[in-house]
Amino acid sequence: MEVVIPHSLGKIEAKSRIEAGLPKLAAHIPGGGSLSSEWVSDYALHLVIGAMGQNIPVQLDIEDSEIRGDVSVPLFLKMMSGQISDFVKTSAEKMLSKA
């Protein structure tokens, strides 16, 4: 499932804000959960959100004016794919808005 988050920060500032917000993100996973993250290139972040015994891989690519995300919702959680996508998008928007 694709997620697009527009911004006007430029790549460097957007990455900086995402990096700053990552440590707080796990605390906001509904029902508790876990989060692992790894920068696979300068502007590509791979996340794995653990929730309800399932792993949800998320790939975020930071561009000059938007962040493109790909959320791979496991079959067990497909019924919640809209909520999971909204969580990823809302979380990224909050991180981008923090100075």
Model description:
The protein has a five-stranded antiparallel β-sheet, covered by helices on one side. Helix 1 packs across helix 2. It is an alpha+beta fold and 99 residues long. The chain has two helices and five strands, in the order E-H-E-E-E-E-H. The mean pLDDT is 88. The chain has one domain (2-94): START domain (Alpha-D-Glucose-1,6-Bisphosphate, Chain A, domain 4, 2-Layer Sandwich). It comes from Novosphingobium guangzhouense. This is Polyhydroxyalkanoic acid system protein.
What's this, in brief?
The chain has about 100 residues and is of the alpha+beta class.
CATH architecture: 2-Layer Sandwich
The N- and C-terminal alpha carbons lie at a distance of 28 Å
Count the DSSP helices: 2
Describe the sheet with the most strands: 5 strands, antiparallel
Indicate the radius of gyration in whole angstroms. 13 Å
Order of helices and strands: EHEEEEH
Organism: Novosphingobium guangzhouense
Protein name: Polyhydroxyalkanoic acid system protein
